[in-house]
């Protein structure tokens, strides 16, 4: 993982746990067997009372005062990491913090790497992997909804759902494997026993509920990549400015004003949009504009959702326009057609509500960026298109959680197939075992060390 087991048991680590810069308070955190002795040497005190704030001066090797502040001592195992932990709360000046940290290193501590405190907490069973990841997700949250969801995961709600599902799965495995090892003396075929099929259905239903929750949590955490595209002067940059709530893009009546991609991260109804405005798609001899159009096409191919903006006053065949712009008609699930400038239409209420092509139905959203008409409906349509409707008690989730849940789902489907089509008891048991392994990856019970290294390596230093 981050350290070999011997080093993890013997070393004392330290790091600045607050952002570098000018501030009222700066915190340095120590964890490990020598933390307490280092704090005594640093302050000249004889002892520290656990979980009590002590006002101290911090001394350099020549007894000059580096800084003064508070010392808190959390003895093992009742600490965040499960080890002896010391927190030094001094002034938040960058020079003072670096001087204090240097002195801590001189007294025997080692520099902590990214995520090492959380990794030690995980190793010492103070939290599981879902809770450890939720720490980083809470710090990186881009919306209030994401922060609240991360805190619910941190307090163990997501882990409880996974553990409850695991318990159901384990009980089913025990029943199946016991029936294989100890067949009924009367020759009853246990595979025809409705109990197994019923239990399997219940596990699948519970898994589907957890998966639906995780999908919403993953959208809360990661947001979606949204690209605005269309002809020049359709109102793409105006739409970006309206959604962002500020003038981020230059808007003029001159075609080709936007020549490069412009990116903005915004939060709408709790959903984080990584929004990209692109150059208008058209044939041009302008070399600079051609480069912008090429970048626009690259961004389009990488988008989770494409917003095609067109002039509703001039363009009445959006499907034909989409085919011309993108080379083929995008799938209805990946594009939202936005008819802008409806303020120029005499009777926009009678404009078509939908367009159809090859059994696909496209529902345009009619807006006026000039007068902010229809923007609320547009936001609702964006959320509908990506399936974002988190409940109030939503939980944060990551892509790897979804992957593990989907592999669990596939294993359960295989178990159902082996049960009902082939009546192969041993294969049912093996599929259930694979389902349990995949599910255990979420909380970290059967997670490979290299994956753990990547997860904790994405954390900030000092956490």
UniProtKB/TrEMBL annotation:
One of its GO terms (molecular function) is GTPase activity. CDD domains: trmE, TrmE_N. Its cofactor is K(+). Homodimer. Heterotetramer of two MnmE and two MnmG subunits. Mg(2+) binds at residues 237, 258. Binds 1 potassium ion per subunit. It holds the Pfam family MnmE_helical. InterPro entries: G_TrmE, GTP-bd, GTP-bd_TrmE_N, GTPase_MnmE, MnmE_dom2, MnmE_helical, P-loop_NTPase, Small_GTP-bd. It is found in: Cytoplasm. Residues 223-387 form the TrmE-type G domain. GO terms for biological process: tRNA methylation; tRNA wobble uridine modification. One of its GO terms (cellular component) is cytosol. K(+) binds at residues 233, 252, 254, 257. (6S)-5-formyl-5,6,7,8-tetrahydrofolate binds at residues 29, 87, 126, 463. Belongs to the TRAFAC class TrmE-Era-EngA-EngB-Septin-like GTPase superfamily. TrmE GTPase family. Its EC number is 3.6.-.-. Keywords: Cytoplasm, GTP-binding, Hydrolase, Magnesium, Metal-binding, Nucleotide-binding, Potassium, tRNA processing. This is tRNA modification GTPase MnmE. GTP binds at residues 233-238, 252-258, 277-280. It comes from Faucicola osloensis (Moraxella osloensis). Exhibits a very high intrinsic GTPase hydrolysis rate. Involved in the addition of a carboxymethylaminomethyl (cmnm) group at the wobble position (U34) of certain tRNAs, forming tRNA-cmnm(5)s(2)U34.
